[in-house]
Amino acid sequence: MLLGIRVTEKVSLLAEKNNVYTFNVSSDANKQNVAQAIMHLYKVKPIKVSIMKVPSKRVFVRGKRGVKRGGRKAYVFFKKGEKVEIS
Known about the structure:
GO terms for molecular function: structural constituent of ribosome. With 87 residues, this protein is of the alpha+beta class. The chain is built from two helices and six strands, in the order βαβαββββ.
């Protein structure tokens, strides 16, 4: 279900201010599956999980056109004081 954590500038600001972490998830994942995977891996119970689609994008590299693959991401909300150890 969880493919990995998303590390971007926006995500790091959300983690500091609102205690929200963002993960890349598989296309068939649902909120319950993501919450169970978080509890199993990090031993922390999330308050809320939001899943959204990431659209594919057109790219142009070295004179060739292509498509950057899309996917899905999950915003996982935790209580204040709870942290996810990312290594």
